[in-house]
């Protein structure tokens, strides 16, 4: 199924603030002049949600009446710097989404992604386990900090930093926030798990360019906020019935173009099966036989092999042999490339450092380009549909299937 939407729609949204008790993360990170406050991040989250709902973008059709909790979860980088404010979105007291807003202006455009119907973290258990492991492995050590971190985007976990009083060395203990499995503190490889700094990766684009991008996203937020204020409406507060009438009478408008393919989302069954789950998604889309994830894995590996994820050449081999199609690996992750593939009704593999997802659509709005992503994480779930800004730096490679 393909869905196209063109047009101009009115800026209408009811925001009802709902409170939630969150477990605070502890970190030694220091604020700097480029830090974004939770209050400013909340405005950016509201503005992004409003403009997607206003445009009646795919996946947002039922979001009218949703509300954002103003108290975000703070997600840190493995280097100790605050990375995201993650805002929880509710409708009728049900969690329907999360919005990730960057916590530092040096990281570029404030918006990273919105996840739909996300699985809640096992925050308490992950934090407790990371501390327990730290105490067990370093009984005389001093725990310096514990925080929720993005340790291998998009994977979230608890990180405990413990200082060995004997050697003076500091050690990091990572526990995944979904599986509660310990993650080794080692660099990721193309086919193996590990940890990497998303914060440092985001700086690859250059601080000056990133600050420019942040400023542009801040101007858009202020524009949306002012458009509502001109009608006497505060977008960060509950909108009354009277205010709704004001907005619907003569509100700011926005235009969007979107195409979304009907690719079903599938969750990965273990931590290295993201490639297998992504193969299943595209197999289903093309109406091809869809083996179990274990069968796909065993096609490439036998019981004597060390556990490892699929590499791009194996994905390309599968496309050729099983689908009769040509797979092409590229490190060019452009907006035009994504638009071209989706316009030709071809979903593709979108890769982070060592993780496969499936891109099944795009949205163009206010000059920004976004991808509709089917993410097979978290492990053991149905997967997580997302909308993610193209060019945010997290996407490293693609495999086009033609």
Give the structural class. alpha+beta
Q: Major β-sheet, in short? A: 17 strands, mixed
Radius of gyration, in Å, reads 22 Å
Average the pLDDT over all residues and give the rounded result: 87
Q: How many β-strand runs?
A: 17
Strand composition percent = 25-35%
* Cα distance spanning the termini: 18 Å
List the total number of helices.
Answer: 9
| Domain unit count | 3
Which runs of at least 5 residues are low in confidence (pLDDT < 50)? Answer: 1-29, 249-253
Overall geometry comes to: globular
Q: Write down the secondary-structure element order.
A: EHEEEEEHEEEEHHHEHHHEHEEEEE
Task: Tell me the helix content.
Answer: 25-40%
Q: How are the SSEs ordered, and which strands pair?
A:
Layout: E1 2-10, H1 38-54, E2 67-68, E3 73-77, E4 82-91, E5 94-102, E6 111-116, H2 123-137, E7 142-152, E8 155-163, E9 170-176, E10 182-183, H3 198-202, H4 207-229, H5 241-249, E11 253-261, H6 274-285, H7 293-300, H8 312-323, E12 327-330, H9 335-343, E13 348-351, E14 356-365, E15 368-375, E16 384-389, E17 397-401
Parallel strand pairs: 3-7
Antiparallel strand pairs: 1-11, 2-4, 3-4, 4-5, 5-6, 6-16, 7-8, 8-9, 9-10, 11-14, 12-17, 13-14, 13-17, 14-15, 15-16
